[in-house]
Amino acid sequence: MRYIGNKTKLLQFIENTIKEFEPNLEDKVFCDLFSGTATVAKHFKSKCAKIISNDYEQYSFILQRNYIGNTKDEDFTSLIERYDNVAGLHGPLTEALSPGGKEGRMFFTEYNAKKIDGIRDKLEKEKSSGIINDNQYYFLLCSLLESADSYGNTTGVYGAFLKKFNTRASGKLVLKAYQPELCNTKSKIFKGDSNVIIKSISGDILYLDPPYNNRQYSSNYHVLNYICDPSSINIKLNKQNQESKTALGTYNISKYSRKAEALKTFEELIANSSFKKIFVSYNDEGIMNLEDVKGVLEKYGTYHLRTKEHKRYKSNKETVNKSVIEYIHILIKEEQWVSKQLSILTRHIEKPVVKTKPKPLLSFSGSVGRDSY
After folding, report:
1. Is 281 exposed, middle or buried (0-12, 13-18, 19+ CB in 10 A)?
2. How many CA atoms lie within 13 A of 257 on its CB side?
3. Distance between first and last Cα of the chain
């Protein structure tokens, strides 16, 4: 998937840095708190005893739930052909995202949008009737997200669509299988505010990849969230009562993307973490500079830094592929700070909890998602 800040090309650098300070991963709990496309969590899935992952966005939860949460063979591949042959349907996605809708948007061709709608409709019906189980459902929905993105008529993000369908977007969508790695690794998957989630988890290795700049993931990937849950489509209107040209509705603005709030929010996260070893991916174009991050981390233990030059994310319309310096800031947290947070976490866990029946993660009727899996 084309994604801002994707770490695929930096995985070996990340792994080498983590292993320099924690060479034995087999019995460790690894947390990826800003998981995005789950690239880093996937990489460490079979290397660790347990993976904790989180992100605020619904599309990320779906990717994590398949790539991290699915660990056993559920006859995934045989499902793809049946779903790939589904009949198209003029549904909410066709109406909102294609020329077949009243606004004539061009994120997808009408054919591809109808196919996405048809697959989504079939997914909900077969999940509700018990024909497919939860693991199969998330595998298929993840595969749909990944496949649909390959046919998106954009420069790489969904902040706008192209005025003409390019060759890639003009092709007929083929549903491909996006298989999870099958292993015995345990997992815990969250969908929520990282600064809230951090107060309820603990482990050995905390990997942080917060937003670097003011580009918002919610507004650049809202189309993927619509595919996850078409009932969430709620397009905002301008003063003339006209719909947003890009089908954008209300969206989350991360405090990490605001210069006035980023550093304070980051320090709160570090202070509240119950992890001994913390690794922070950032770069030299970020809102927080190197000295800002170093200054925060040094308060809580021993600080180290590793760097690597690489090509930054480039959308299709950009002609210059600029190099940036990727930082991995390392904190070996002092035991007093780790113990303090573990004590707070233990007291929190010991409090009685009133259990309620969770709502289904996705529904065309508009129910909201669960916070964790």
Report:
1. buried
2. 11
3. 23
Report if residue 341 sits inside a domain: yes
Same domain (yes/no): 48, 79: no
**Which pLDDT score is estimated for 316?**
52
Q: pLDDT digit string (tens) for 41-89?
A: 999 999 999 999 999 999 999 999 999 999 998 889 899 999 999 999 9
Quick one: 31 and 155 in the same domain?
no
The H or E element spanning position 54 is: strand 50-55
Residue 203 domain boundaries: 1-58+186-216+255-354+362-373
User: Do the domain assignments include residue 67?
Assistant: no
Strands (E), 261-334: 275-283, 301-311, 323-333
Number of domains in the chain: 2
Q: Supply the pTM of this predicted model.
A: 0.89
Question: What does the pLDDT average to over 7-26?
Answer: 97
Tell me the three state secondary structure of residue 162.
Answer: coil
Give the model confidence (pLDDT) of 285-299 as tens digits: 999 999 999 999 999
Same domain, 223 and 338: no
Regarding beta strands 203-208 and 275-283, do their DSSP bridges make them parallel or antiparallel, or are they unpaired? parallel
Same domain, 204 and 334: yes
Cα(154)–Cα(67) distance, integer angstroms: 25
Q: Which of 204, 205, 198 is nearest to 345 (CA)?
A: 198
The closest of 12, 101, 115 to 328, measured between CA atoms, is: 12
pLDDT value for 240: 84
Indicate whether 54 and 162 sit together in one domain: no
pLDDT higher than 80, residue 127: yes
DSSP per position, 81-142: HHHHTPPP---HHHHHHSTTSTT---SS-HHHHHHHHHHHHHHHHHHHTTSS-HHHHHHHHH
* Same structural domain, 226 and 104: yes
Using 50, 70 and 90 to split pLDDT, how confident is the model at 321?
Answer: low
Q: Do 234 and 321 belong to one domain?
A: no
> Is residue 66 situated within a structural domain?
no
